[in-house]
Design a protein that fits this description.
single chain, about 425 residues, alpha/beta, Purple Acid Phosphatase, chain A, domain 2, 2 domains, 6-stranded mixed sheet, about 45% helix
Length: about 425
């Protein structure tokens, strides 16, 4: 069902772009049918291929890496660029409809309407309107070039530009001995042909360079195939931290044909998976309850898993929840969780802009929590942009990240020594 929804959304966006592109080409080259046939052929080729991949569940793990990069990169660049174009076209369509509605209301007012019609008939305004149309048509070509350029950059550069995000989070109940306790988080690895073992090795070395007290990997070790766990396990077996390495299963780990084998391999490589349970992480005599729940589909199930994992827990011990999806912050707050660590959204992966805590990205349609630090009552949450990619192997305005969180007892943390 999810694949059908994705295909329907993509085809709607591509249909809007195709209709607009065809109109622009007719206005610029009205007698050149060859360009219009080429445009239709490109849309048919790329969308037909997408439909086959989604409907037939075609896997690409058996293909050599060099072929994937040579043959599929143009495919992903095309769809990424069309997605960007579609976003701006939808925005322009909404603004145009609002403008036309306002114009219609003004024309419907007798006194204002007569003056507005007289104003619109002035030669200078008529000439301005013609110039505006030419400008918009030429701008469309610039936008198309910028979209394809951004998509190519997202495929070849930004998706591999892993950055460190360092932040401090205050937990009032934190034991004095754990003031300054550090957590390194790498979510959404997505082992696949587009997240190679060499890239995962580099991620592991980056995590080790932090010297964190504990390392967490909140899900999506693989993308969709069970065999993708083997290069992941080989790379992440080198990971270690003084207070341990922990993880939880994500939705893509359950997409694999054998999620139990994925879980076994992840556990065996040294990442302790928390299956709806809790454990104590200690340092200098102080303790934190680290809670982990499997990927869940409904808030009711998240609450049930949480209550089961927290049964018998001391309210005086601060609790940190590993939960792959960030949707369940309100449920975590109800159960007294102090801090939630999540991924899943990839920070949007393709981001058109940020305004305060609002991220302009398609991911915002599915979750109010896309990236960064959030609060709900006494509970806090940090959502990671993740390391890997899914769907389109590209990132735009959203580089991958490793999060380093320093815990403190107060909002202003003073490092000792």
């Amino acid at each position: 069902m999810f694949r059908v929804i994705v295909l329907a959304v993509v085809l709607c966006v591509e249909g809007i772009v195709y209709v607009s592109a065809r109109r622009w080409l007719r206005q610029s080259w009205p007698d050149n049918r060859g360009i219009q046939i080429l445009l239709a052929g490109l849309f048919l080729l790329f969308n037909g291929t997408l439909a086959l991949l989604l409907v037939l569940h075609v896997r690409t793990t058996w293909l050599p890496s060099w072929f994937l990069y040579v043959a599929t990169d143009p495919f992903y660049i095309w769809h990424g660029a069309v997605l960007i174009l579609g976003f701006f076209l939808l925005l322009a369509l909404i603004l145009t409809l609002l403008f036309r509605l306002l114009r219609w209301l003004l024309h419907a007012t007798p006194l204002i309407g007569r003056r507005l019609k007289a104003f619109e008939r002035r030669p200078a305004i008529v000439q301005f309107d013609k110039s505006r149309r030419v400008f918009l048509r030429r701008s469309a070509y610039g936008l198309a070039a910028a979209s394809f350029g951004s998509a190519a950059y997202g495929v070849y550069a930004e998706k591999d530009d892993v950055r460190f995000t360092r932040t401090h989070i205050a937990i009032p109940l934190l034991p004095p001995s754990m003031d300054g306790f550090t957590i390194a988080m790498a979510s959404d690895i997505h082992s696949s042909p587009f997240m190679t073992k060499a890239e995962m090795d580099a991620c592991v070395q980056a995590l080790l360079s932090v010297d964190a007290d504990v390392i967490v990997v909140p899900g999506d070790f693989v993308t969709s195939a069970t065999e993708e766990v083997y290069p992941f396990a080989e790379s992440f077996s080198a990971l270690h931290a003084p207070s341990g390495v922990y993880g939880v299963m994500g939705n893509h780990d359950f997409f694999a044909a054998d999620p139990d084998r994925v879980a076994r391999e992840v556990n065996d490589c040294g990442i302790r998976l928390l299956h709806n349970e809790r454990t104590l992480v200690t340092k200098g005599g102080g303790s934190i309850a680290l809670v982990g729940i499997d990927d869940v589909g409904r808030p009711e199930r998240a609450s049930a898993y949480l209550r089961s994992a927290l049964r018998g827990a001391s309210p005086e011990v601060p609790s940190i929840l590993l939960c792959h999806r960030p949707y369940f912050l309100p449920q975590a707050a109800e159960e007294g969780i102090d801090l939630v660590l999540s991924g899943h959204t990839h920070g949007g992966q393709i981001v058109f802009g940020r305004f305060g805590n609002v991220t302009l990205t398609p991911a915002q349609l599915f979750s109010p929590y896309v990236w960064g630090h959030y609060r709900h009552g006494a509970a806090q949450m940090f959502v990671s942009r993740g390391v890997g990619t899914v769907g389109l192997p590209m990132r735009i305005n959203c580089p991958p990240e490793i999060v380093v969180i320093t815990l403190s007892r107060s909002r202003v943390w003073q490092p000792r020594g």
